[in-house]
User: Which sequence fits this backbone?
């Protein structure tokens, strides 16, 4: 058996306007743009990575901004909400900040003993800020958000499923345990201190999700560097159909759709975003994997301008 995952590595969403997503995730949420690259499966589209100062696993929100993307629909078979962890007492600050940015903050409410503030990103992706006293320290020294309120990384994700049984069992095999239940919401927790929560909301009557801007493309879980083959076997043993191990330069990945089609990725902790750029210069220039470097001029000419 592979070593239990401590939680989420990164979450990747589809967006539309690239400049608008940079402004929201860096200026409003205060994350750092740690990598500016292209979608390796469609190099006419950026792949933008936000996170803490180093893009530590557990802090990485990544976006494919297709300028002409149709809006998707959040529904079953998808990650339906992305939740960020903030310190206790900071939600009033965030509610004002998100209102100023037209991010539709809702009313803070209690869920399993934590206060939750819902909001949306510029493409309508449902987000939450979850306040906890045990949030680890922030690592965002240059953020426009005051250190005391800064996002620490992910709290977790919510999956919208018609039934939670098979996926819940898969999560248990990955190292999660069920810790709570409230009506249709089942909570699973892993052992890390960031991105350790997966909530399953069972919605058999809900409409299926449609991919597009404002929806999550996939959620990646952190795995040990040398255990990708074991994770592949784990997925095969559970009747799923994983990809081969794919080298993403900053981590190695295996992908598989779980039983209700949510795309799961298993991404290694290493080598991280400083493998091809200095820490201080992360995100400043377009970075291409070695096998695309020959096509840099052509690729840059196709990409929209981006500042920030
Ligand atoms: Zn990914």
Assistant:
């Amino acid at each position: 058996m592979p070593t239990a995952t401590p939680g989420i590595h990164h979450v990747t969403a589809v967006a539309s306007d690239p400049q608008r997503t940079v402004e929201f995730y860096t200026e409003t949420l205060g994350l750092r743009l740690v990598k500016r690259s292209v979608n390796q499966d469609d190099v006419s589209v950026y792949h933008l990575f936000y996170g803490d100062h180093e893009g530590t696993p557990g802090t990485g929100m990544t976006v494919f901004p297709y300028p002409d993307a149709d809006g998707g629909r959040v529904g079953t078979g998808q990650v339906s909400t992305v939740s960020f962890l903030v310190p206790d007492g900071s939600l009033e600050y965030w509610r004002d900040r998100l209102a100023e940015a037209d991010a539709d903050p809702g009313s803070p409410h209690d869920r399993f003993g934590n206060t939750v503030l819902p909001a949306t990103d510029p493409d309508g992706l449902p987000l939450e800020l979850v306040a906890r006293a045990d949030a680890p320290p922030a690592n965002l020294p240059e953020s426009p958000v005051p250190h005391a309120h800064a996002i620490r990384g992910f709290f977790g994700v919510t999956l919208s499923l018609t039934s939670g049984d098979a996926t819940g069992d898969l999560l248990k095999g990955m190292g999660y345990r069920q810790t709570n239940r409230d009506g249709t919401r089942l909570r699973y927790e892993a052992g890390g201190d960031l991105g350790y929560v997966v909530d399953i909301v069972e919605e058999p009557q809900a409409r299926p999700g449609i991919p597009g801007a404002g929806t999550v493309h996939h959620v990646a879980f952190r795995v040990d560097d040398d255990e990708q083959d074991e994770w592949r076997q784990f997925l095969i043993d559970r009747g799923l159909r994983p990809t081969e191990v794919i080298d993403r330069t900053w981590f190695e990945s295996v992908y598989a759709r779980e039983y209700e089609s949510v795309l799961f990725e298993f991404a290694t902790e290493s080598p991280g975003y400083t493998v091809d750029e200095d820490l201080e210069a992360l995100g400043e220039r377009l970075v291409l994997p070695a096998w695309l470097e020959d096509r840099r001029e052509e690729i840059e000419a196709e990409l929209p301008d981006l500042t920030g």
Q: What stands out?
A: The CA atoms of residues 39 and 47 lie 5 Å apart. The two ends are 43 Å apart (CA to CA). The domain at 8-302 is CATH 3.10.180.10 (2,3-Dihydroxybiphenyl 1,2-Dioxygenase; domain 1).
